[in-house]
Structure formats: C-alpha cells, structure tokens
Amino acid sequence: MKFSTKHLQPGRAASGCVVAGVFESRTLSAPARELDALVQGALAKVVKRDMEGKSGSTVMLHDLPGLTAERVMLVGLGREADFGPRQYREAIAAAMRTLIPTGATTAEFHLSALEVKGRGAAWRTQQAATVALESIYRFEQMKSRKDRAPHSLREIVLAVASREELRDAERGTAHGIALAEGMALTKDLGNLPPNVCTPSYIAAEAKELGKSYGMKVRVFERADMQKLGMRTLLSVAQGSAQPPKFVVVEYGGAAKSSKPVVLVGKGITFDTGGISIKPAAEMDEMKYDMSGAGTVLGTLKAVAELKLPLSIVGLIPTTENMPGGRATRPGDVVKSMSGQTVEILNTDAEGRLILCDALTYAERYEPSAVIDIATLTGACVIALGHVASGLFANDDALANELLTAADAAYDRAWRLPVWDDYQEQLKSNFADFANIGGRPAGSVTAACFLSRFATKYKWAHLDIAGTAWRGGKDKGATGRPVPLLTQFLVTRSNAR
Fold first, then answer.
1. Domain residues for 220?
2. Domain count, the chain
3. Residues noted as catalytic
4. What CATH number is given to the structural domain containing 65?
C-alpha cells in the first residue's frame, strides 16, 4: 500500500474514491461541504434523506456529475462536540471496511484534514496510515485457501488542511507506516501456532531482524544460561522438550557511550501452567503468552524503520511451560541469577520467573531505563479489561513518560501501585520470597515480585494480558503495545 500526503481540494483530482466526513445532526464537515458545492448540493440531499452521521456509519455514492472521482464515501463522525481520537480512528477504520470490498485502486482521504482535539497533522496522518494498514492485515499463512480475494486498493492520499502542515503530515505518515510494519511482525508471531512459533523460531526471527537492519543478535543456549546462573528461567523450561533460548538484540542508533533503553519481553511460547495445569477451555490462547517477546521484536522493527538515534537492547527469555516428569513442582525452591531464592508455590506464575533473570542480566548495560512487557496476570484483565495495559514503575518520571506516550499513541495504559505494603504477601517460610501472593491484588504482587530484581535502575512493567490479543470471533493478536513503546522511543529521540 502506497501513501502520500497532499494539500488539495476535494474532488478535483482523478480518484477511485473521495472520503469525507459527516457529523451527527447531518452536519457536513468542511471537506464534505466543498464536495457538496461541486455537485450542487447533492451530498446534502443524500445526507438529509439517508444518513444521520453516527460514528462508523458510511454511505457510498457513484459517478456524481461534476466530479472526476468514481466514488464519494461519506463517513459518520458522531457528535461534533465529542469528536476526538477514538472517533477519528473509528472513522478511518469504517472507511477502510467499506472501501476494501470495492474495486477502487486509489482513494483520497479528507478525514485527515479534520481537526482532532489536541492533535496535530503528524498525529492525524500517523493514525490514518496505521489504522488503514491494520485494516488490510490478514493472517492466512497456515491456510491452504485464502478466505478473501486480494483487495484492489493500491494508494491512499492523506489530505491536509494547509500547505504548512505538509512537512508534519509526511513525518506522521512515515511513522504510521513503520509502526504498522512493527505491529504486523508482532501479530504474525502471536498468531502463529505454538508448534511453529517455538523458542527456536523466535530466536531465528530475531536473527533475521538483525540481519535485515544491522542489529547485533546473540542467542544463549541452555548451557550458557546455566553458566550465567539463570536458574529461575531454566526451572520453567524443565518440563518441555523444546530447548529454551535467551535472545539479546542490540540496536545501536546512538553513540556507544549512550546508555540504552532495555526492553524485556516475556516469551512463553505455550503455557499449560505446568504442574499447576490450566483448565482446558481456551487454553489454545496460551500461544499468545509470548506477546511480550513479539512486542520487543515489533518495536525494534519500527524503530529501525524510523532510524531513531537511540541505543536500545531487547532481551527475550523464551521457553514453553509444560508438565512432565522433569517439570518444576509446587514447593520447589530455586536460586535466581540475582542470588535471591524463590519458593515456587504455583508453576502457572512462570512469567515472572523467566523475567526476573532477564531483569538481572539487564544490569550489565547500565541502562537509562528498563521496561518489561508481559502477558503476566489474569488479575490485570479483571482490573482493567481489554482497554488499558497495566503500568507499574519504580520511577515517577519514567511512568509519566510512558503514560504520555500511551495517550499520544492512543494505546492506553493505567498506572497501578507497587507499594511495599504489598510485598508482605510474597513472604515465604522456606525461601527469600514466594512467586505468588494469593488472590488479592494479583497483578500488583506480580509486579512487586519483579521489582525485587529491578533495584539498580529505573524500571517499568507493562502487564498486557488484557490488551495483547482478542478472543472470540475476532480472535487474534492486536500488536499492542508496540504503538505505546514506539511513541515513547520517538519522544525520547526527539528530546536528545
């Protein structure tokens, strides 16, 4: 899909489809009014008769006299007073849903010329490009027959309201394309079946990414991890026939003296729960338990496409969590790479066990910040649903950076506490602490566990159990929180 940004009057150029918006109460947006003048009020008549302007509604018109465009699509924007980021994204998505089944090869989007509260041209074109590319994403690699015929849409022009906005709009479009490509990688890895997307597959994908973008990649094998003392990570891998991997990816977009941002992604390629086995219902969705690892690789791809002048390190501990004669048992005590001992009371609280050794490994980089990303707890889904990722941090400034990026990217997060009061729940009679703290505040005590391994640097934890994938008829990976992390890194690079 090709994108371009232009300042142009609606309906003056040849196009397969011109897209403009209509607010509730049948109020034409400014671009729609310009189109209406060219067709002598025909759009206003159609809107008055057939369209209320509700968010996400569409009307398609063909071969209107006075226009060179083959089609005009009117998209409902909702109430003008409420028009904001969510309604804007919904309008772009609705336009794409209606446009894709048509035979249009080109489209002219005048939605990107609309004012959105608190957002500039760069944001509008970035979101338009990302949402449009998300709309055409399909995962059909494992199917012998494709569900849909290929769409004919080849080019989208994103219109802006003035020539002064063009530079920002072009920058936003490039950001949106890079972001969509990173999200597509994250989605592909999540959607692959667990017999394909194994720890070895993730390691191979990291190597391929490194080869494509000049990143340094190292893969640690079981023996390497044993030498490093990564016993909590290896304890999770004991029951699986698949060999575990610890993947290190280094992106050097800044001077070597620059302290890197370290991204740590949970890479459980399938989670049965181990000996503390999960219920059978929906266990297939546990292939998404590597979404943190997929997020790290997707974010690195987006960053590399944008050529950000930052140093970034991706750390991916990856394994399966399986039951078996060699599997870790509830009651086992394991010594972590940090030297702290952990009583494993529940083998289904395994993500924190592989992350804690990776967090200790991160110390050697003397990082400016460490952010771990993990589908860590069902408790976070109960707390925040599928709208916001849970954010925990030991540094207020870092937390605020991430929350600002979440808002800018419309990839929302909500901060939860990691107060010392909650550490009491992790007490153990037989080790330094346990790997679970009971049912109350489960997502908080999981973060408190991780915080014990992140005392030497600024650290944040994103619990993405509710946001990394959808279930039901729309089952599939979402690509989140690649937008949040990419925006965070873009903002940091702009501040340099």
1. 181-494
2. 2
3. 278, 352
4. 3.40.220.10
